[in-house]
Design goal:
heterodimer; A: 483 residues; mainly beta; 5-stranded antiparallel beta sheet; 4-stranded antiparallel beta sheet; 3 helices; 11% helix; globular; B: 653 residues; mainly alpha; two-stranded antiparallel sheet; 28 helices; 2% strand; Nucleoporin_prot_Ndc1/Nup (chain B); transmembrane helix (chain B); nucleus (chain B)
Chain lengths: 483, 653
């Protein structure tokens, strides 16, 4: 099973840099400090506090301005505030993540490494055309399309601290954005010449208590969108066209942090902030619980046929796999669920010998990505330095993982976010956003799964990330036993 | 014979579902009543006394009697749900049409029965709360006349509140289309759906009871003496002069009275809403129809047979829902759809299903084109309007040429009336979905004008089959009526003069002498119009509600959404699963139908009165999802086209 030691040592090589984005130096925690203080009446301030922070904000405001209010009101509001804090501390001792602020929560549960100081906060390839959307740290989204000269910039009053974004499948224009306290669905007409689509192009989907939104996922073949918030125990299923939602409440977990819809549309992975995740079946929306992990589920990805789920757990350096087999004869039941997860790869820290000296690789896993053909698996490893390990995968007849190589950027940079391009013809193409604000494409060229050939696979024009000596192909990291 | 059997069997299915929902609501009445007893007798300072009193009340024989009464009420409500439900909402296009709906005899019966049931529930509540509410009369000693029976006004107020809430439930139901049963995009088990909806229902009933209470108290404050005097006179009770009457501000602000009124109203609405909710959940549950039957006597229960039937309407809805689901989720049932008939080798199942879906879609296209026509020509000069009419005729000719083979089983929809596109499409629409002609007529209502009747003429057989006949009306009504009703009916008159003179001589003479008579009529019309326009009330009543016609046009679009989903998923699946290539033969027709519909929908959304985004209204229990069906249809249509093209890709060229 072990480990990264089987990997070829990483080489530095050219990547084709697509676009370079300057990281923003502006750190804005709150716009309040930018304005001068001025005197408002207590009533105005209380109304503002009520609007901004709810009951506790109002009580806080009253308790702080004891000079202006009657003594009994100040004292009683301090008491109520203390009581509230005590209750909420009790509550958050059950779910520690509730003590985080919204921004910290987004940073904690986002798939992006170091979300808060990252120039690129989200990236999404369009599922059908060569078009991608990039969310920047100044809360704007740019849409790049090689066929068009215009680069639309999407800005909206409610578009703050973007945690994730995804294009709607089977649609040319709809882009779902997970924002601070709502979901935005932009309809960006691809033929439009406008560089600043108005905020009228965006549908705002919000639900009380559903903030911050940290993950969104479109159903691959339908109009549904699921969204998750670590503060909301319910998973929301939106019918975007009519802007209505159905909350799916289940006990336990304390919130939902990460969602991933299987490519065949039959299941949804929903991770929670505690050591529990659920796999929803999308026909009747029932769920399977997977409790008793060592930590919370950090990331997960589905094989293209939806039969296998790989996931990682925070605090561990291994990848687990679950296998689902469909039973068409049993309609209304969650059928074919596996009994236990198996460990398929171990990415604990190892030392590799390179000509430049020994380097340390491995560590905790930040995110996983599986290419749409199911032949390459990219694993974003958090260690120092962070890097991306790539596995070759084979799904049928038996599930196999083979070491492939590492993806590294320029010296001193580390990957923050990665995604496979769903429309790449010659194999797989991994798009990586780096800490210095660059976005690069890393192509992997190979023949189809039937006859794996070492080498370039007939398309030599692309620089490969790493050399791949043939003997590494024979060392299988994980092979499923067929009994 | 098939259709008769089909109807009986279908009604049976629905009846059983309704009965199951009623049984559950009766079962749920037990905890609700217990909760009501606990809350209504709540006393903070004597908890032990409170609990023991409640327990003894719950086990007493009289409580069982009132519980049986409540069960009877719930069964009645369930029966009314079954009798009045609809899957295609009737949308009133103007205030006057809404008024017509409210005053409709059928609705009157509904209101009356609900009023009476409200009184019954309130009586049970009064009995349960006990104390000063217990009975209508109480012995009292008036000055120097000895003991006699006096009116207990608390009891009376509670009963009247029950009647008021019952009536307002019925009224709000018709305004917000509470009898409309909507289907959900997401399938969930009945228990989970009920569990998810229960908090909303509790909240809705509490809020609704509060609003009703406010209105009731206002009404009682001003009009309270009338029922009191009447009751006293009928039952020979006297009014206790030593107690203040309740229609004064101070006695109405009695907190305990308000609480009891509110909790009783909440209880009443909650039990009824739960019944409605359970009925909706049970009746919209997915029904899995067999795709093909092994025995001929079950043939009427198969999907292709049910999907083409029209009665009862909900069965067609369920069949289409099943089609959409099977096309997405079950490969084995898809294989049955793609299979060939055993002797003969014809793809009967696929042909029947696709034909029905396509005819549904092309019907919608025609309806949209007709509506667009009537709206677009409104306000233009007459010469232009005829031109545009002609153009749309040709475009719908194209539609029907494309769909020619699809429509053979339905001759009524095929009638070509060269002059009027509108008429023909309303023939199709009227026959298939009687409630969704763009103007939502209420034919029996006393307020519907002859012009409206004429528009919905296709419902009468004579109007449907001979287009010349349908427009025989007095010219005055023809010219004045539509102007009042809506602008959209106006061009109908301009664009399509009666093509054949028909037996009525007066309109044809009017047509023949354009010079004097026409200008005279025109002037009169303008005068009348100006006269009426100055009267605020009339304008208020007859003004078109915004978006209502658009909503009405898409009122039954749930079937179109399912047809689109079912077709597109089946076509996409056929790429790998269709062994005999039977889908390929219909693929061009499907694509052209989808694209024509896409064009029509796009044009519709560009009309000035249609908003491009779904609005939100948070009415309590009324289901307003029919208001957003057009948006769902638009996005489903787009997705369907993309799904087919993305699957077939380059093969389509």
């Amino acid at each position: 099973m072990c480990s990264l030691a089987l990997f070829p040592p990483p080489l530095y090589s050219m990547n084709n840099v697509v676009c370079s984005l300057k990281p923003h130096s502006r750190q804005e925690s709150s716009s309040k400090s930018a304005f001068r203080d001025h005197c408002e009446t207590l009533y105005t301030r209380s109304a503002g506090a009520w609007r901004d922070a709810g009951l506790s904000g109002l009580l806080n405001e009253i308790a702080n301005s004891s000079a202006e209010v009657p003594k009994w009101l100040g004292v009683s509001s301090s008491c109520v505030l203390a009581l509230l804090r005590w209750v909420s501390s009790f509550h958050s001792s059950l779910f520690p993540h509730l003590t985080l602020s919204s921004e910290e929560m987004t940073a904690e549960f986002s798939q992006v490494l170091d979300w808060s100081d990252c120039a690129v906060r989200g990236f999404a390839w369009h599922p059908h055309t060569q078009k991608c959307a990039v969310a920047l740290s100044d809360d704007s989204i740019k849409i790049y399309n090689p066929k068009s000269a215009t680069t639309p910039t999407l800005k909206h009053r409610l578009q703050r601290s973007v945690a994730a974004l995804q294009w709607k499948p089977l649609c040319a224009s709809a882009l779902a954005v997970a924002c601070h306290n709502c979901l935005l669905v932009w309809h960006v007409d691809p033929t439009s010449l406008s560089t600043r689509p108005s905020s009228g192009c965006a549908q705002v989907l919000s639900h009380p208590g559903h903030s911050p939104v940290t993950s969104v996922a479109w159903s691959p073949n339908g109009p549904l969108l699921v969204s998750a918030s670590p503060r909301d125990t319910a998973l929301l299923v939106w019918d975007v066209a009519v802007e209505s939602c159905v909350p799916l409440h289940r006990v336990g977990g304390g919130g939902v942090t990460y969602l991933s819809w299987s490519p065949d549309g039959s299941r949804v992975l929903a991770a929670t902030p505690s050591s529990l995740f659920r796999v929803w079946e999308t026909r009747m929306w029932t769920c399977e619980r997977w409790p008793s992990l060592k930590g919370r589920c950090q990331s997960g990805c589905w094989s293209p046929d939806g039969s296998r789920l790989l996931f990682t757990v925070q605090g561990e350096t291994v990848i687990y796999a679950l296998t689902f087999t469909d039973n068409p004869g049993v309609p209304l039941m969650m059928s074919g669920g596996p009994k236990a997860a198996t460990v398929v790869a171990d990415l604990s820290e190892t030392t590799l010998n390179t000509p430049d000296g020994d380097i340390m690789v491995g560590g905790e896993i930040q995110s996983l990505a599986w290419d749409p053909r199911g032949e390459r698996l990219a694993v974003h490893v958090k260690g120092r330095p962070a890097m991306i390990a790539v596995f070759k995968t084979q799904i049928s007849p038996a599930f196999k993982l083979l070491p492939c190589g590492f993806v590294q950027g320029e010296a001193g940079t580390e990957p923050r976010l990665m995604q496979f391009n769903p429309n790449y013809q010659h194999g797989a193409q991994l798009t990586v956003c780096w800490s210095n604000g660059k976005i690069t494409h890393v192509p992997f060229c190979f023949m189809s799964a039937g006859n794996p050939q070492p080498g370039l696979g007939g398309s030599p024009s692309f620089p490969l990330t790493q050399g791949r000596p043939a003997d590494y192909n024979n060392q299988t990291l994980y092979t499923e036993l067929i009994s | 014979m098939f259709s008769l059997k089909n109807t009986q069997w279908g009604s049976l299915v629905i009846c059983w579902r309704a009965v199951a929902s009623m049984a559950w609501s009766v079962l749920l009445l037990l905890p609700t009543t217990a909760l009501f007893v606990l809350l209504s007798r709540f006393s903070l300072f004597h908890p032990i006394l409170w609990m023991s009193e409640c327990l003894s009340l719950l086990t007493s024989a009289s409580a069982i009697f009132s519980f049986i009464l409540l069960c009877g009420v719930v069964l009645m409500v369930g029966f009314f749900n079954l009798e009045y439900y609809t899957v295609v909402p009737s949308i009133a296009c103007s205030k006057i049409a809404l008024l017509g709906q409210v005053l409709h005899p059928r609705q009157f019966v509904h209101s009356l029965v609900h009023c009476i049931m409200g009184v019954v529930v309130a009586w049970c509540c009064a009995f349960t709360i006990g104390g000063r509410y217990r009975s209508l009369g109480h012995p009292c000693t008036q000055d120097e006349s000895g003991p006699e029976m006096c009116l207990n006004e608390y009891h009376l107020v509670l009963l009247l509140a029950g009647a008021f809430i019952g009536y307002s439930h019925s009224l709000v139901g018709v305004v917000y289309n509470m009898n409309y049963v909507s289907f959900h995009t997401m399938q969930q088990y009945k228990y989970l759906r009920f569990k998810g909806a229960l908090p909303l229902v509790v909240k809705a009933s509490a809020v609704q009871a509060l609003y009703c209470l406010r209105s009731f108290l206002l009404l009682y404050f001003f009009m309270g003496y009338a029922p009191r005097a009447w009751i006293c006179k009928t039952l020979d009770l006297s009014i206790n002069s030593s107690i203040h009457s309740l229609d004064s501000v101070s006695s109405l602000l009695d907190l305990s009275l308000l609480y009891h009124l509110w909790i009783s109203g909440t209880f009443l609405l909650l039990t009824w809403y739960i019944t409605v909710l359970l009925f909706r959940i049970f009746v919209t549950e997915v029904y899995s129809f067999p795709v093909q039957s092994t025995f001929t006597e079950d043939a009427h229960q198969c999907l292709p047979k049910v999907i083409t039937g029209t009665q009862p309407m909900i069965l067609k809805f369920l069949a289409l829902q099943d089609l959409a689901l099977l096309s997405q989720h079950s490969p084995s049932r898809r294989l049955e759809v793609f299979s060939l008939s055993q002797p003969g080798g014809h793809p009967h199942i696929w042909t029947a299903l696709s034909k029905e879906c396509l005819s549904l879609l092309s019907d919608l296209t025609e309806r949209l084109v007709a509506h667009h026509d009537t709206v677009a020509t409104n306000g233009r000069a007459k010469s232009q309007s005829t031109g545009s009419n002609k153009r749309s005729t040709t475009s719908s000719e194209v539609t029907s040429v494309g769909m020619e083979d699809m429509k053979t089983p339905r001759p009524s929809a095929l009638i070509r009336t060269p002059g009027s596109v509108f008429l023909r499409s309303s023939v199709g629409a009227g026959l298939r979905t009687p409630l969704t002609t763009p103007f939502t007529p209420d034919l029996d209502s006393p307020f519907s004008s002859p012009a409206l009747r004429r528009l919905t003429g296709p419902l009468e057989p004579q109007g449907a089959l001979s287009p010349g006949f349908s427009s025989i009306q007095s010219p005055h009504v023809m010219r004045r009526g539509p102007k009042l009703w809506s602008a959209s009916t106006d061009s109908q008159l301009n664009g399509s003069p009666p093509p054949s003179p028909g037996p009525a001589p007066s309109p044809s003479q009017a047509q023949l002498k354009p010079s004097f008579l026409v200008t005279f009529l025109q002037n009169r019309k303008d005068q009348v119009k100006n006269f009426l326009a100055k009267r605020m009330l009339i304008m208020y009543l007859f003004n078109k509600l915004p978006e209502a016609s658009s909503q009405a046009l898409f009122a039954d679009s749930q079937v179109h959404i399912w047809a689109l989903q079912g077709l597109s998923h089946l076509v996409a699946a056929s790429f790998s699963e269709d062994q005999y290539g039977i889908v390929q033969t219909t693929l061009p027709t499907i694509l052209s139908t989808l694209l024509l519909l896409q064009e029509a929908v796009d044009r519709h959304f560009k009309l000035p009165h249609t908003s491009s985004k779904p609005g939100h209204c948070s009415c309590s229990m009324g289901d307003d999802s029919y208001k957003t069906l057009r948006f769902a249809l638009r996005s489903t249509l787009k997705t369907a086209v993309y799904r087919i093209t993305a699957t077939f890709g380059g093969h389509l060229q």
